[in-house]
Write a structure and sequence with these properties.
The protein is mostly helical. It is built from 15 helices and no strands.
């Protein structure tokens, strides 16, 4: 087992290396970097001032770096570290990232690590709730559908599940805002932040209720689009296992239906569910989080990454990408270990040869 874990941990290094290398090449050699972004803002300000009559220079069109003072370009290039040879910048980035030193944001006057810590709480709140509620709803519901396959309950829940799967999370979020967020009908839930302004003044019980009150709509919008496939997968796996010979044997020995389902069938059904842990975990944290965060005014990592890409804030882009990749790789490793723990028939020694 330890040899297998060592090999998997060693495999993380080239993967991280490849992701960082590719992203670094893009940030270094693709036009439209932070220098051009600042120069375009200068151009827009000059154009507006010329149009408004605040400057006698008149408006002029921006085309790359043409028409801009060379000294100003050199100062900006040095300020953002693009005056160094690419190879030197690359090795410096790798050395810093090993120490989790992501540098400072170009435009936010704050270190990248402090930015990530500030935004991480929002993404963790949405991700943890989405991940656990997805399994807490989909697994029992899938089992109930399998046990009652072909019944009216199975038919009605299938319609609801398919409707939830067909509606994207952000579309459902808009509908929830219209219905319960003061859009057109009831003004029940807040639409900004994870807590109220007076949260620090509340008691412990009131703080919990206030937090749940704020996350109700965004978590609902996120969960509904995630649990459909897990529910159908659980149902199909249960149906397949129920028809196997060992189930008939267990029933013939006089075991109760509850013992058959939970002690035998459920354990074998866990295998595909466990293998889906990494994808569900990453999806809950990062996939669609941008739209949910934007829709409900939640300042999390998804929104931070999107804004950083738009503003060419490369230290933030590289730092968040490094963190996302690291979390994804370790989550996949945990999923593999959980798979072996659930099914003792799988041995690490068989994977080490």
């Amino acid at each position: 087992m330890w040899i297998y874990l060592f090999k998997r941990l060693a495999a993380l290094v080239p993967t991280l290396f490849g992701v960082l290398t590719l992203t670094f090449l893009v940030t270094q050699f693709v036009p439209g970097g932070p220098v051009d972004h600042i120069l375009s803002q200068i151009d827009q300000a000059s154009t507006r001032s010329g149009v408004d009559g605040e400057s006698g220079g008149g408006g002029w069109s921006y085309s790359g770096r043409r028409g801009i003072d060379a000294k100003q370009i050199d100062q900006l290039t040095a300020q953002y570290g693009f005056d160094k040879p690419p190879l030197e910048s690359y090795w410096q980035m790798l050395k810093n990232f090993v120490r989790f030193d992501f540098g400072d944001s170009y435009f936010r006057n704050q270190s990248v690590w402090s930015l990530i810590k500030d935004k991480l709480g929002v993404s963790v709140s949405l991700g943890v709730w989405t991940f656990f509620l997805t399994y807490l709803i989909s697994v029992p519901l899938g089992i109930a559908k399998a046990v009652r396959a072909g019944s009216r309950f199975d038919f009605i829940t299938s319609l609801i599940i398919l409707a939830g799967y067909a509606v994207p999370g952000f579309v459902l979020g808009v509908l929830l805002i219209l219905l319960f967020g003061g859009g057109s009908f009831w003004d029940i839930f807040p639409l900004r932040g994870l807590t109220s302004d007076n949260w620090s003044e509340l008691g412990t019980g009131d703080k919990i209720l206030d937090y749940l009150w704020h996350v109700a709509l965004p978590v609902t919008a996120s969960v509904v689009s995630h649990f459909a496939m897990k529910t159908l997968l659980t149902k199909n796996m249960f149906l397949e296992e129920i028809r196997r010979q060992y189930v008939l044997t267990a029933r013939a020995k006089g075991l109760s239906e509850r013992q058959v389902l939970w002690k035998h069938v459920f354990r074998n059904t866990l295998l595909p569910l466990v293998t889906g842990f990494p994808a569900t975990f990453i999806g809950a944290f990062f996939t669609g989080s941008l739209l949910i965060e934007t829709l409900f005014s939640l300042d999390g990592l998804g929104l931070l990454s999107f804004e950083s890409i738009n503003s060419r804030d490369y230290p933030v882009v590289l730092g968040t990408l490094y963190l996302f990749t690291l979390i994804g790789l370790f989550t996949k490793l945990v999923g593999d270990i959980a798979y072996v723990l659930v099914d003792p028939r799988i041995k690490f020694s068989a994977q080490e040869h």
